[in-house]
User: Which sequence fits this backbone?
């Protein structure tokens, strides 16, 4: 399975936030710089993760992004489906084989 660039950036950002001190927002600019991602595109990705309840955003000078729930409750599937939509099987179910 090939992952989209969107999912790759989303996973990278979530991993950075998992390593950050809990409850302290990290600015998009820092996530983009550390992850070597285009900031404008990453901003769209982060907004999508906020809309799906994976991240939360904080406005203001000390604002940024942080995890909305513990990292132990966030799966790769959550992140990929938040960015690329629901995954569908590409192989037929096993009960269809003779």
Assistant:
């Amino acid at each position: 399975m090939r992952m989209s660039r969107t999912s790759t950036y989303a996973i990278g950002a979530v991993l950075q936030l998992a390593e950050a001190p809990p409850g302290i927002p990290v600015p998009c600019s820092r996530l983009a710089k550390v992850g070597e991602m285009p900031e404008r595109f990453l901003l769209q990705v982060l907004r999508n993760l906020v809309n799906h309840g994976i991240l939360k955003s904080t406005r203001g000078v000390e604002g940024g992004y942080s995890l909305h729930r513990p990292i132990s409750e966030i799966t790769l599937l959550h992140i990929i489906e938040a960015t690329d939509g629901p995954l569908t099987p590409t192989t037929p179910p096993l009960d269809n084989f003779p």
